[in-house]
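Hi support team,

I'm filing this because I wasn't sure whether my run with guanosine-5'-diphosphate finished correctly. The job status page said complete, but I'd like someone to confirm that the output block is well-formed before I use it downstream. Pasting the exact inputs I used:
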Amino acid sequence: MCAAADDTIAALASAPGPAGVAVVRVSGPAVPEIAQRLIGRLPEPRRAVLARFRDAGGSTIDQGVVLYFAAPASFTGEHVLELQGHGGPVLVDELLSRLLELGARLAGPGEFSERAFLNDKLSLDQAEAIADAIAAGSRVSARAAIRSLEGAFAREVEALVEALTRLRVYTEAAIDFPDEDDVDFLGDGEIERRLSAITRELAALRAQAAQGAVFRDGLRLVILGRPNVGKSSLLNRLARRETAIVTDIAGTTRDVLQQQLSIDGLPLVLVDTAGLRETEDPIEAEGVRRARAEIATADRILLVIDDRTGLSAADRTLLDEIDAEIEVTLIANKIDLSGRDPGMANVDGRPTVRVAAIDGRGFDALGAHLKSLVGIEDNAEPAFVARRRHLVALDRAAEALADGHERLVVDGAGDLLAEELRLAQNALGEITGRVSSDDLLGEIFSSFCIGK
Ligand code: GDP
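And here is everything the job wrote out:
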């Protein structure tokens, strides 16, 4: 795919700080020579050996287990040395200094994974899955990331790319031999049939990827409601049911409070805002501005109402203010006071969950409702993780297919269809990294941790 890197990188691959073992990873062409000078020999590939790590004067910096992987059979596809020494920060510093002295340089974030990608060891979405697996906040998200790493997403994308390639070949042939044996290839329905099949498969993959993205990024829910309807109580109740860690996201202000938690493995980002009240007070006005910004990026609004009053005039005003494109679920709270049963209902044509934040009634129904919003039934899990950039690429591919279909059926223009198919293929290629720009790679890998 590209020329092999000519320099050798080194970094601490395990977490910094005192630990039982620290793993320092070295990758690149200078590995055999570095091994010779650091431990006096190049171990047999894939054989753990105990060795002394020596400084320039020959005295021992540390001792530990050394593993050598010969190119191309390694994570990066290059010669790799893994040095498993004692996990003391000073020892690690000394070892890294020695490696730099021997010609390695410190690796940047994600540089090992980037090399693995550039050497065709991983597709781009698989490399991203490594970062996602490390950062996963729930068991379900972590397992989905591992499935991506195993190629679950890449395989689906590749299958679509292959189907597109075959259709392109067929279309090009139809253009080159328009009326062979009096057969009208462009108009015989075969191209349209295949195009529709690919479009359907793409839509199914898009739906799966959307689930995968939710399990990576969390479903963003903005909680709105008049004062005293029970917004804080709802948040607290959700947080208390929570088995995973609840975190207050850094950077939140007194106006916008965000909490991350998960319901049955579905990660949620709950955003509690100061509300939308118009105000003269400049600080509050800033709060209102932020609340609007939060609402604009929400996956869904939870509008908390008091079940005793139902949807009040003030609630309707709030609803009028919300962008019609963002869907709303009503949370009718305080059923202990209204005397109604917990669970799903329909108020004013909107999906409504009746709950009591005070004792937790109705929260199972709320959890099931949120999962059904992302198309996850019961305890099903997403097939893989996906990122927003993947969804954008899938959307671009779908657009190109739709345009191509129009060129075919409206204009009967095979060459224009072929061009749209090519664009669709390129968009899909960006997911796996078959088609990529340096900018994109830089952006993706710079968000990785060092040593990965
Ligand atoms: P917020 O202003 O919307 O955040 O409302 P709070 O969560 O602070 O709740 C306002 C009041 O309603 C508090 O006294 C809560 O204890 C009470 N409250 C909240 N949820 C319930 C509920 O389900 N039942 C009852 N009886 N009281 C509730």
